[in-house]
Amino acid sequence: MSTETAVLKLQTPLRDLVTGAVQDSSADFGKSEQDKAEVAAWIEKVAQGQIPKPEGLKDLDTELTPRTYLVSNYFTAADVALYGALHPILSQLQPPQYYAHPAVTRYFDHIQHRPAVRAAAAPLAPAFSIVALDLANTPALERKADPPKEKKKKAEAAGPAEPAPKKEKGKAAAEVKQAKEETGEKAQKKEKKEKEKKAEAAEGGKKKEKAAGGGKPAAEEAAGEPVPSMIDLRVGHIVDIKKHPDADGLYVEQIDFGEEEGPRTVVSGLVHYIPIEEMRDKYLVGVCNLKPANMRGVKSFAMVLCATSKDGKEAGIELIQPPPGSKPGDRVYFEGSEFENATPLSQLNPKKKIFETIQPGFTTLETREAAWVNPVTQSVHKIRTKDGVCVAPTLVGASLS
Question: What positions does the domain TRNA-binding occupy (predicted)?
C-alpha cells in the first residue's frame, strides 16, 4: 500500500493534519522504498485504530525508547500520524501517568513542537493544541557507571562447595598447617603474576583486551598520562530542550546518544549564548563519560562540546557539529594511529583531572575543523567520525569545552 492511500484512510481532522504537515518540506513520506513502506505501515496502524489506549502504552514506550523518529533517523508523515493519534490520550493524562511512559512522553513533546506540525495544526485548532507537559520535574533516570572489569572467580564456575566432614583434632591441626603453607605458596605465585602483568604493561600491554574498533588496547585508568582517547565522545541529537526551572542561565536537554535506555538528561550553561530556537533538534558532539553531576537540582549525564571564541564567551559560543548524515551514538574519535581504535574509559575519574589535562589542546583550525593539538609535539589530531571531521560553524582558533 502506498503512503498516499494509507493517508486517505485516516479520519478527519487527522488526515488534514498529516496532509498539511507533508506540504512542508520537513515532513517526508520516506527517502527510500523501504522507508516508504515503513511509513505507510505506521499510518495504516493509526488508521485501523491499532495505537494503544492509555492502559496499553507500555509496549509503545518500549518501542520508542531507542528512537527519535519512527522511521530511520528523520521526521516523516508517520510521526505526524502517531502524534495525532496520541494527542487525545496524552492530553488527558496527569504527570504521574505520563511520567510512567517517559519515551512516549518525550517523543510526543518533540513531535508536537515540530514547525511543520504546528503550522498544519493552526487551522485545525483546537483539535491539536499544544499539550502542556511538566517535563522539568520528570523523575530522573538513574544511570550508574559501568562496573570495573574483573576476572571471573574459579569458585563461581565450580559452584557451591560441599560441606567438609568433621575431622579429628590431630588431623585438623596438621591440615591447618598445610593450608597455611599452601596459602603462602599461592600468595607468592599471585605476586609473581602481578609482576609479570606490570612488565607486560610496560612493554605495550600485549595482554590487554582489544578494543572493538579494531585492535588497539583499551585505555585504562592506571595507564600513565592522560590521553585524548580516554574521553568518550559521541554524536548526540537534542530531542527536547527547556530552561532550567531554578537557574536562569541553564538549559535542560534530552539528548539521544543512540542508547537503549533512551535520551540522557544534560544540563548546559548556554542560555545567554545560544538561543533555544537554535538548540532545538540540533545534532552535536557530547562528552559521555564524565561523572554525573547535579546542576541546581537536576542531574546531568553528559556535556555538550562547544567552541568558545578566542576573544571570550561574549564574542560567541557555538555547538561543535558532526558531519552531515551522522546518527545518534556514532563514535567520535581523534585522528592518529595511537588514538583511532582505542576504547575510552567507562567513566573519567574526577580526581585524575583527565579531561582538564587534555582540554587546553582542544581548538578549531583555520578550516574550522575541531582538533586536539599535542602541546609537546604540536601534532594535530582532528576530531571526527567515520563520515568526516567535526566543525564549528564560524569560529577559528576557538577553545573547545
Answer: 227-333
